[in-house]
Automatic annotation (TrEMBL):
Record field: catalytic activity: a 2'-deoxyribonucleoside 5'-diphosphate + ATP = a 2'-deoxyribonucleoside 5'-triphosphate + ADP; a ribonucleoside 5'-diphosphate + ATP = a ribonucleoside 5'-triphosphate + ADP
Major localization class: cytoplasm
Active site: H117
Residues in Nucleoside diphosphate kinase-like domain copies: 3-134
Role played: Major role in the synthesis of nucleoside triphosphates other than ATP. The ATP gamma phosphate is transferred to the NDP beta phosphate via a ping-pong mechanism, using a phosphorylated active-site intermediate.
Required co-factors: Mg(2+)
Family under the similarity heading: Belongs to the NDK family.
InterPro entries (alphabetical): NDK-like_dom (IPR034907), NDK-like_dom_sf (IPR036850), Nucleoside_diP_kinase (IPR001564), Nucleoside_diP_kinase_AS (IPR023005)
Subunit structure: Homotetramer.
This enzyme's EC code(s): 2.7.4.6
Protein name: Nucleoside diphosphate kinase
A single BP term in Gene Ontology: GTP biosynthetic process
One Gene Ontology MF term: metal ion binding
């Protein structure tokens, strides 16, 4: 299996809840290594740029407002199959549909305040890692 890198963001709701450590612990227990990380307050421009792919979606403005509502913890995770493994640990976008024991099932409030972001494919992982850790 390939060693991959993926971008993970612990979103403002989870940072505010004081569960950064609990979330990182899940990654580490699953064999993912934190190889770069930073707590950061995103600017509106940075949040809009990061989610540019969703610019035409009805929830875009709310998503940007949420992402700048407090600091986020951005990190690069490395390990075997890191992209899919991270997505599996995160659970479905809507916490109501997320499998029990996943990060979103345990820590997310709603589909917009859903605790974590994770790259969804090798191409997006490369772009997203470069966006924050050039
Ligand atoms: P993902 O984060 O699970 O990859 P995406 O479909 O890429 O999900 O959506 C990006 C983010 O946009 C989600 O994590 C969530 O915060 C927000 N979002 C997605 N769909 C909705 C929606 O229907 N209403 C409100 N926010 C949404």
């Amino acid at each position: 299996m390939a060693i991959e890198r993926t971008l993970s963001i612990i979103k403002p709701d989870a940072v505010a809840k004081n569960v950064i450590g609990e979330i990182i612990s899940r990654f580490e227990k699953a064999g993912l290594k934190v190889v770069n990380a930073r707590l950061q307050q995103l600017t509106r421009e940075e949040a809009e740029g990061f989610y540019a792919v969703h610019k035409e979606r009805p929830f875009f403005n709310d998503l940007v407002e949420f992402m700048i509502s407090g600091p986020v913890f951005v990190q690069v995770l490395e390990g075997e199959n890191a992209i899919a493994k991270n997505r599996e640990l995160m659970g479905a976008t809507d916490p109501k549909k997320a499998a029990p024991g996943t990060i979103r099932a345990d820590f997310a409030e709603s589909i917009d305040a859903n605790a974590v972001h994770g790259s969804d494919a090798p191409e997006t992982a490369a772009v997203e890692i470069a966006y924050f850790f050039a």
